[in-house]
Amino acid sequence: MLVSTDGRTFRTDSFDEIEALIRNSAACGKAEIWLSGDAPYPAAALLLNGTDACVTFFGEDEGEIKMSSGSSAREVLFRAGGEEWLAPANAVISLDEAAVCAEEFFRNLKLPACITWQDGV
After folding, report:
1. What is the DSSP annotation of 14-55?
2. Is residue 66 a contact partner of residue 119, using CB atoms and an 8 Å limit?
3. What does the angle CA 10 – CA 48 – CA 65 come to, to the nearest 5 degrees?
4. CB atoms closer than 10 angstroms to residue 36
5. Taking the complete model, does pTM exceed 0.85, yes or no?
6. Which domain holds residue 17?
7. DSSP conformation class of 73
8. Coil, helix or strand for 92?
9. How many domains does the chain divide into?
10. What is the pLDDT along the chain (121 residues), one digit of tens a residue?
């Protein structure tokens, strides 16, 4: 799997390595991690901030885009594409949910079924 974060991209076959990156990055504040197979799509983008996350799934270029559907009581500020983005409360999920979602995507490169999705932006 290709993993991109902080301007660097690397390949790994270990979900443990990806999960460690997710948890360490979130603990440091706002982070953005992209996961994909050998092709650019499908891809999953994880926006992280402490114990909060927002996940976006890209099925193909200019195709299916889904965003996590959560039940947070508040909006959360994330970093996306180098810019700060205030996610609506209904898109925020827990860091643990995002890690499970990333693992499912890692295993099959399909839209994870472990969370609820809404149409993406």
Report:
1. -HHHHHHHHHHHHHTSEEEEEEE-SSS-SEEEEEEETTEEEE
2. yes
3. 80
4. 19
5. yes
6. 2-119
7. S
8. coil
9. 1
10. 999 998 899 999 999 999 999 999 999 999 999 999 988 899 999 999 999 999 999 997 677 899 999 989 999 999 999 999 999 999 999 999 999 999 999 999 999 999 999 998 6
